[in-house]
Specification:
The structure is a single chain. The chain is an alpha/beta fold. The chain has helices spanning about 55-60, 75-80, 85-95, 105-110, 175-180, 205-215, 230-235, and strands at about 1-5, 35-40, 45-50, 70, 95-100, 130, 140, 145-150, 155-160, 165-170, 185-190, 220, 240-245, 250. It has seven helices and 14 strands. It is globular and about 55 Å long.
């Protein structure tokens, strides 16, 4: 299995126009972050997790020509604003794209992209199929996906586990029941917005506490805001099996 971190930033993060903080003005490519998204390739099946406004740039950068499914964590625009940009993938595959998420999230996509679901579609719109899911395991082309229920402040959202890999973003709480679904991981990707506490996202200390509790072999931080600080300053402070995620980073998962 291979995981590519398409983006590791956030709309509350990097870069901010007119901001001259050390991160936003950094020339270190490790500090240049697009909105959070990931691509999972397992047994020839490509599964995209979230499709933010930077999706087109992310797809071009890594040369993706096929998507077999799109998992949405939640309906906020920094995670769904690029869905229209899957249309070139539709054209290349000559197939529809199946999207998976909570019923509430599927309704939001249907509303936001109503032209893609109209009875008489305008030529060239993306061809999408909405698949409402519950917290039960399901399959995408034979690959099992396990939803993980987490909270984004008070909003119930999903993370996802695929084999020995799990992806959690925008979370501020994970119940003990859901943590049990995250035992035995080779790789965990989890959000940490900044050093200071935040009302709707884990900060770095909270994310590290969860990593220490779950004990994955390796962990990568995503959804990083510019308040986290520069990569070169933060990375040396992390445990030896934890890294700040880098855009377009490829992670091999056994």
């Amino acid at each position: 299995m291979q995981v590519r971190l398409l983006g590791t930033g956030t709309s509350q993060g990097i870069p901010i126009i007119g901001c001259h903080c050390p991160v936003c003005s950094s020339t270190d490519m490790r500090d240049q972050r697009l909105r959070t998204s990931a691509l999972v390739e397992v047994d020839g099946v490509n599964i995209l997790i979230d499709a933010g406004p930077d999706l087109r740039q992310q797809m071009l950068r890594c040369g993706v020509t096929r998507l077999d499914g799109l998992l949405l964590t939640h309906e906020h625009k920094d995670h769904t604003g690029g869905i229209d940009d899957v249309r070139p993938i539709n054209f290349l595959m000559k197939e529809t794209l199946n999207i998976y998420g909570q019923p509430r999230v599927m309704k939001a996509v249907e509303t936001d992209y109503s032209y893609a679901f109209a009875e008489n579609k305008y030529p060239g719109v993306p061809t999408l199929v909405l698949n409402p899911i519950l917290p039960d395991p399901f399959q995408i082309k034979g690959i099992e996906v396990i939803p993980i229920k987490v909270r984004h402040m008070t909003l119930p959202i999903f993370g996802y586990r695929i084999r020995n890999f799990a992806y959690i973003t925008d979370a501020s709480f994970i119940s003990e029941t859901e943590k049990r679904k995250l035992h035995g991981l080779k790789v965990l990707v989890i959000n940490a917005l900044r050093i200071e506490e935040h009302y709707s996202h884990f900060n770095l200390a909270q994310a590290l506490a969860i990593i220490q509790e779950l004990k994955p072999e390796r962990a990568f931080i995503t959804h990083i805001g510019h308040d986290m600080g520069k990569y070169e300053d933060v990375a040396p402070t992390l445990p030896e099996n934890v890294w700040l995620g880098i855009d377009n980073q490829v992670i091999e998962v056994e």
